[in-house]
Amino acid sequence: MASEELAEIEGQISDIFRALSNGFQKLEKIKEPNRQSRQLEELTDKMRECKRLIKEFDRELKETDYKNDPDTSKMLNEKKQSMIKELNSYVALKKQYASQNKRVDVFEGPGEGFAEENVLLASNMSNQQLMDHGNRMMDETDQAIDRAKKVVLDTIDVGTETAAALKAQTEQMSRIVNELDSIHFSLKRASQLVKEIGRQVATDRCIMALLFLIVMGVIAIIIVKIVNPNNKDIRDIPGLAPPAPARKLLWSSD
């Protein structure tokens, strides 16, 4: 006979199935997306609990299998398979509502899926199925490792190229800084030269103005001497011959 623990677990699973059935009927009447999402999360929690109870049912069944007759063991195994099948039907229904709601499926995160081959307990798999599943997982792991290696190699190449580009840019920046220093020095030297040229031009202008005044003074004295040669107030200019005295013509009368 089945133990009391199995009967208790079966009762809990039946209660969860009834709650899931009522929950999905309620979900059909909900139109608001946010409320649908909350309802799906509640149903997801119930399905997780149901999965845990099915595993516990299977474990208890193994522990008490030697006490049961063949017919009872067969009946309990069929009941377990029936519970798994019913749970999978609710999982499929949940997927349908989740896809219609276009929201992230929190129920099927990594390692949390309730697909049929994941809900199927390892104890029900044959050795060949376990080996095939293990080989498939190893192949997927190898492919993931190969992809990771490729990403690492690509990252190293990109890092090398980036380092080379940064080095070239650093050298270019150093050359630009040196050229800017040279330009700054040239501008400073040119500014000094402009100031010196400006001072020299100012000095030359003063000398030219002074020479102009001297020449104009000499010209003025010359003009005055020519116009009024008997003016004693003006001294003779050195190097300039004094004006010739006026000549008187004598007329002789016959």
Task: Explain briefly what this protein structure is.
The chain has 254 residues and is an all-alpha fold. 76% of the residues lie in helices and 0% in strands.
Structure report:
One of its GO terms (molecular function) is SNAP receptor activity. This is Novel plant SNARE 11. InterPro entries: NPSN/SNAP25-like_N_SNARE (IPR044766), Sec20_C (IPR056173), T_SNARE_dom (IPR000727). Its main location: membrane. The protein is an all-alpha fold and about 250 residues long. It has five helices and no strands. The protein is rod-shaped. The protein starts with a helix and ends in a 27-residue tail after the last helix. The relative contact order is 0.05.
The SSE string, one letter per element, is HHHHH
Question: Uncertain segments of ≥5 residues (pLDDT<50)?
Answer: 103-117
Strand content: under 5%
CATH class: Mainly Alpha
Number of DSSP E strands: 0
Characterize the main sheet.
none
What characteristic shape results from the CA principal axes? rod-shaped
What's the architecture, going by CATH? Up-down Bundle
Helix-and-strand structural type: mainly alpha
DSSP helix count? 5
CATH T-level fold name: Methane Monooxygenase Hydroxylase, Chain G, domain 1
How much helix, percentage-wise, in residues?
A: over 70%
Distance between the termini: 198 Å
Average pLDDT over all residues:
78
Tally of discrete structural domains: 1
Radius of gyration: 58 Å
Keywords: Coiled coil, Membrane, Protein transport, Transmembrane, Transmembrane helix, Transport
Family: Belongs to the novel plant SNARE family.
Protein name: Novel plant SNARE 11
Transmembrane segments: 207-227
